[in-house]
Amino acid sequence: MTTTPTQRPPITGAAVRPPSPKRPKRRDGLAGWGFFAPFGVLFAVFMLWPIGHGIYLSFTDQSLTGSGGGFIGFANYLEAFGEAEMWQSIGNTLWFTLLSTVPLVVIALIMALLVEQGLPGKWLWRLAFFMPYLLASTVVSLIWIWLFTPQLGAINTVLTGIGLPAQPWLQDPSLSMVSIVIATVWWTVGFNFLLYIAAIQGIPEQHYEAASLDGAGKWRQLFSITLPQLAPTTVVVVILQVLASLKVFDQIYQMMNQVVTPSTQSAIVYIFDAGFTGYRFGYASAVSYIFFAVVLLVSLVQFRITARKGA
């Protein structure tokens, strides 16, 4: 006699619960925080804490010698706002930014167009135009100090050779800022040149072929295809160049042989002198945040202008 296994009746009215989605979400969240933690720690240590500590110092009379440190409120800010030398240094910085940004954009664009559309030996020209950007600021400063030497400098030698008078490039307050701009353009134009080279190479060749079939010459292709296609790159170059020029310090401090005249003193140089020459860390911190507000204002105006042009 065979027996059949008893079959259990199906359970009705009980639904099988799906796995809770909270655990995978929690795991993903923990994994995300784990990946973010190293960056977050470094960002807090090297960015947030210095910013917060700098703000605290701006409200104290802290000195480099270790004396002071007491809370003095807005005294440093009030002194800075009433200091004519501070405002002159900010004006010099804005003037340097204007003088350097325009040629750094225009010359870099012209160099990129010449290399990509006509000059033989492209690799050699690319190397020659970009090489100065790889030099250290001290090397660049020494090169141009020698070139600008009044008696034995190469530039004055050329000027006197063609019948023009020699110029005291770094000694004359009316020429010193222009001299620093010339050295800066020679030094940093290679970076902008590289950006334009990459942008030109990204323009589809079909655009030029179609324009040639329609009878457009080189100049028409330049103004109707190349320059409009390079407009986004120009915006990026201008933004990067303005921000870089506002932080000018090295070439001014080195080319002026650490004796900066009022006509060439930038905001960073003024902050450096106040903190490390005058030993006034609290005052230097206050000036640095005032300058940060000026940089932020310039950046907002620049973004507003570029946004309007883009629209």
Short account of what is shown:
With 311 residues, this protein is mainly α. 70% of the residues lie in helices and 0% in strands. It is globular and about 75 Å long.
The biggest sheet, with number of strands, parallel, antiparallel or mixed sense and barrel status, is: none
Structural class: mainly alpha
CATH architecture of the domain at 95-278: Orthogonal Bundle
Relevant CATH superfamily of the domain at 95-278: MetI-like
Order of helices and strands: HHHHHHHHHHHHH
* Number of H/I helices: 13
Beta-strand segment tally: 0
CATH topology call of the domain at 95-278: MetI-like fold
Shape: globular
The first-level CATH class of the domain at 95-278 is given as Mainly Alpha
Cα(first) to Cα(last) distance is 92 Å
Tell me roughly what share of residues is in helical segments: 55-70%
Strand content: under 5%
Average pLDDT value? Answer: 88
CA radius of gyration:
30 Å
Low-confidence spans: none
Give a verbal description of the structure.
The protein is mainly alpha-helical and 311 residues long. The chain has a domain at 95-278: MetI-like fold (Orthogonal Bundle). The chain contains 13 helices and no strands. The termini are far apart. The model has no long low-confidence stretch (mean pLDDT 88).
